[in-house]
């Protein structure tokens, strides 16, 4: 139904108090959700549903659309830092904090789902999890996913937090932690706050150094993933190690 159709549908009967134009739209959106639990929803529509409860006296459609335009997707909107969320007209400190609580719940769900099956068979879920954790961080983080011989997750650890464009990484410390956890494989993940996921020469050299130390010890480096607001890159897919 178009916005114009919704406006006509929400016109009050003669003699009745006018109804705010978005109330009928909210009812219809909830009914649609009941039919397919949001499977047919655009990102902004699902975001609208969340905002209904946070902003009961506001028309949330334009706010949801602003958030998608600014951050790119539903998951990226939830992942955005609170101070950036508050730059959206209509989102104040309380609504921003409530959205971050929803984001924390989503991250916990995604993280809990990872150990249930081999990471390499859940690559899309892994990328979604890494993006939700790191895409909007304003400093570089170096994350390690340690895997067992069945490629199930043993541990997920942030080893280093650096500056806006650099994180110190010590290959021997990475391998030491693998041995402590009895991990037989690992995936490296770090973010680029600049938004460009292209690996730097330093990223490539560090990855090769870790792979060279790990191999004689029977530890497999599956990949090094770089996460950014504008996408991700895989050094394995790019054949850089």
TrEMBL record:
Q: Where are the residues of the annotated region Disordered?
A: 1-26
Sorted keywords for this record are: Hydrolase, Metal-binding, Metalloprotease, Protease, Zinc
Q: Which Pfam families match?
A: RadC (PF04002)
Q: Which domain of life is it from?
A: Bacteria
**Which stretches does UniProt call biased (Basic residues)?**
16-26
> Per the database record, which ranges form the MPN domain?
119-241
Q: Which NCBIfam families match?
A: PRK00024.1, radc
Q: Record's family?
A: Belongs to the UPF0758 family.
- What name goes with this protein? DNA repair protein RadC
The organism encoding this protein is Maritalea mediterranea
């Amino acid at each position: 139904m178009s916005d114009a159709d919704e406006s006509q549908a929400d016109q009050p009967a003669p003699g009745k108090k006018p109804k705010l134009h978005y109330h009928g739209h909210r009812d219809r959106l909830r009914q649609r959700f009941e039919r397919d639990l949001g499977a047919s929803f655009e990102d902004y529509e699902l975001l609208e549903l969340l905002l209904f409860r946070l902003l009961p006296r506001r028309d949330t459609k334009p706010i949801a659309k602003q958030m998608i335009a600014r951050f790119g997707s539903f998951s990226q909107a939830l992942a955005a830092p609170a101070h950036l969320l508050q730059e959206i007209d209509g989102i104040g400190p309380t609504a921003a904090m409530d959205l971050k609580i929803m984001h924390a719940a989503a991250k916990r769900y995604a993280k809990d789902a990872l150990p249930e099956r081999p990471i390499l068979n859940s690559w899309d879920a892994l990328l979604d999890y890494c993006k939700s954790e790191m895409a909007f961080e304003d400093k570089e983080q170096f994350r390690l996913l340690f895997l067992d011989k069945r490629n199930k997750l043993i541990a997920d650890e942030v080893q280093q937090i650096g500056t806006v464009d650099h994180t110190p990484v010590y290959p021997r410390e990475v391998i030491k932690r693998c041995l402590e956890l009895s991990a037989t494989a690992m995936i490296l993940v770090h973010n680029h706050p600049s938004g460009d996921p292209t690996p730097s020469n330093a990223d490539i050299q560090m990855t090769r150094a870790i792979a060279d130390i790990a191999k004689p010890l029977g530890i497999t480096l599956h990949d090094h993933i770089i996460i950014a607001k504008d996408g991700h890159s895989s050094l394995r897919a790019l054949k850089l190690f």
